[in-house]
Write a structure and sequence with these properties.
Pfam families: NDH2_C, Pyr_redox_2. GO terms for molecular function: NADH dehydrogenase activity. InterPro entries: FAD/NAD-bd_sf, FAD/NAD-binding_dom, NDH-2, NDH2-like_C. It is a single chain. A ten-stranded mixed sheet has the order 1-2-11-8-7-4-3-12-24-23, sandwiched between helices. The chain has a four-stranded parallel sheet with strand order 16-15-14-20. Helix 3 runs parallel beside helix 13 and helix 7 runs antiparallel to helix 8. By secondary structure, the protein is an alpha/beta fold. It folds into two domains: 232 residues, 3-Layer(bba) Sandwich (FAD/NAD(P)-binding domain), CATH 3.50.50; 208 residues, FAD/NAD(P)-binding domain (3-Layer(bba) Sandwich). The chain is built from 15 helices and 28 strands. The relative contact order is 0.14. The structure holds flavin-adenine dinucleotide (FAD).
């Protein structure tokens, strides 16, 4: 792994049990560190002029993220029921190494004064214990017991420019039992767990020894959160139950139920009212139970307690009720935070974070995506915003190359005279099932304003996500899986 080798060439010093990497040669180089490989961070990694940064500015681009991939989140709901295969919805960070250095690690804390980060490897320790017998020139040699572990030692990195793009976590509103017994849908691994669980429910319910009452409990699918993620998952699940599941488990499919809970009076709160009504009517027609103004009090294994309904048994519970702060953002005290959402750092219009004591922008530190709120404009926590902010920031960072002060000055990229970021709302899309979608362009920044529903919106939904898919590989895989699953059905194997 080149990144590790490069880091290891620097002199490593130990401070407070944390390994620090800043050897003489690498310290002479400027460092752009990007935290997070999501919609914000990955776009910067992709679009930053890596060769010129390295050759002309003598600068290392370093990515720190606990996953070595990017999640194409709008396709996660499709992956969770097998409409798409998992690898079609991720892009590897390693595509850009060795031009950049990448560490699969969490950033645990940031020392803004000394421009240092403490990171924790996100690679789980692997342990092999026991003896091995190896053949050595005809005679067997019994090797002594060996213990090999992955390294979980914290390490320190220094930065000259820092982009904080760590996103946000799932909101649970401290409802007891949610973290332990519900599924979230934020990462491709969540989608895989959900898909396995759905198939597990049907295989268990198919056992001859099980009672019908227990079958009904297992096949009761609950979703909490009527935002776009909850709605799209309900829609995808409905499609799955009414196509492949109905074909292969006809009796069980009739017992299966989908319930969508929300505390609000309507689903899809951010959408135009007419579109909310369209989605509501469609779900009702399709037999998806909409339980708005319902409050989940606590969750236990296989059941939850709802104020308005009492005990509700489920085989699968998917929880999607918005965002809570990333612990890294919570741990930061030196910067201003958004008092309203409490989940993000406040930035100025040029996406520089603001110092808590003086309110002045830090010229070398930027925040984008779900982890940031611009002080003058509250933007939605969407991939669209994160991606546009990343594009804006990449342009500014690339401009540094041309600037004579690129060598070491820290003041320029963040200069106050740079034009402020402007969000261009392209509209919102949501899949509502059965090859239908809704498209809200009532707040669009450019082009025709209006709304669209049904098949036309579905075509727009699919073409938008096909167009936005990043790599050529996935541009081939995504339509290929759509086509294959349409012809042959989704894969029902569980392993
Ligand atoms: C299922 C689903 C569907 C969605 N559909 C849409 C859609 O159709 N349209 C739309 O506009 N938006 C959509 N969104 C919202 C969109 O995905 C988010 O707004 C977007 O991902 C935010 O981008 P981000 O870069 O800020 O954070 P993220 O994409 O969440 O990325 C954060 C990154 O930071 C990493 N990270 C976390 N903590 C640390 C740490 N301590 N150190 C280093 N790295 C860290 C994470 O591993 C991750 O790589 C959807 C979201 C979900 C969950």
């Amino acid at each position: 792994m080149l990144s590790v080798q490069r880091a290891a060439t620097g002199t490593s010093t130990r401070q407070l049990g944390v390994r620090t990497f800043f050897g003489t040669s690498s310290r002479a180089k400027q460092r752009l560190v990007i935290l997070g490989s999501g919609w914000g961070g990955y776009e910067i990694l992709r679009a930053i002029d890596k060769k010129r940064w390295s050759e002309e500015c003598s600068l290392d681009v370093i990515m720190v993220s606990p996953t070595n991939y990017f999640n194409f989140t709008p396709l996660l709901a499709s992956c969770s029921v097998g409409t798409l295969e998992f690898r079609a919805a991720v892009e590897p960070v390693r595509r850009y190494t060795p031009d950049v250095i990448a560490y699969t690690a969490w950033c645990d804390s940031i020392d803004f004064k000394h421009k240092k980060l403490v990171c924790m490897p996100a690679t789980s320790p692997v342990t092999f214990e026991g003896s091995q017998t190896q053949s050595n020139g005809g005679s067997d040699v019994n090797e002594s017991a060996s213990l090999v572990t992955g390294n979980t030692e914290k390490f320190q990195l220094t930065y000259d420019k820092l982009v904080i793009a760590v996103g946000a976590y799932n909101q649970t509103f401290n409802v007891p039992g949610v973290k332990e017994h519900a599924h979230f849908l934020k990462d491709i691994r969540d989608a895989r767990r959900i898909r396995t669980r759905i198939l597990e429910c049907f295989e268990q319910a198919n056992q001859p020894t099980i009672t019908d009452a227990d079958r009904r409990k297992l096949l009761n699918f609950c979703i909490v959160g009527g935002g776009p993620t909850g709605v799209e998952f309900a829609a995808e699940l409905h499609d799955f139950l009414h196509s492949d599941i109905a074909r292969h488990y006809p009796a069980l499919a009739r017992m299966a139920k989908i319930n969508l809970y929300d505390v609000a009076p309507h689903i899809l709160g951010g959408f135009d009212t007419g579109l909310q009504e369209y989605a509501t009517a469609k779900f009702k027609r399709e037999g998806i139970r909409l339980l708005t103004q319902h409050h989940v009090e606590r969750v236990e294994e296989g059941r939850m307690f709802v104020t308005e309904e009492g005990e509700v048994n489920f085989g699968l519970l998917v929880w999607s009720t918005g965002l809570s702060p990333n612990p890294l953002i919570e741990s930061i005290t030196e910067l201003k935070k958004d008092e309203r959402t409490k989940r993000s750092l406040l930035t100025n219009g040029t996406l520089n974070v603001l110092k808590a004591d003086t309110g002045a922008p830090d010229p070398d530190v930027f925040a984008i995506g779900d982890a940031c709120t611009i002080e003058t404009e509250a933007l939605p926590a969407t991939a669209q915003v994160a991606n546009q902010q990343a594009k804006y920031l990449t342009k500014r960072l690339n401009r540094l190359i041309k600037s004579s002060s690129a060598s070491a000055s820290s003041s320029d990229a963040a200069s106050a005279d740079a034009a402020a970021f402007k969000f261009q709302n392209a509209g919102s899309l949501a899949y509502v099932g059965d090859w239908e979608a809704i498209f809200d362009r009532t707040k669009a920044a450019r082009g025709p304003k209006g709304k669209e529903t049904g098949r036309v919106a579905w075509l727009l939904w699919r073409s938008a996500y096909f167009t936005k898919t990043l790599s050529v590989r996935n541009k081939i895989l995504v339509p290929m899986y759509w086509f294959l699953n349409w012809i042959f059905g989704r894969d029902l194997t569980r392993f």
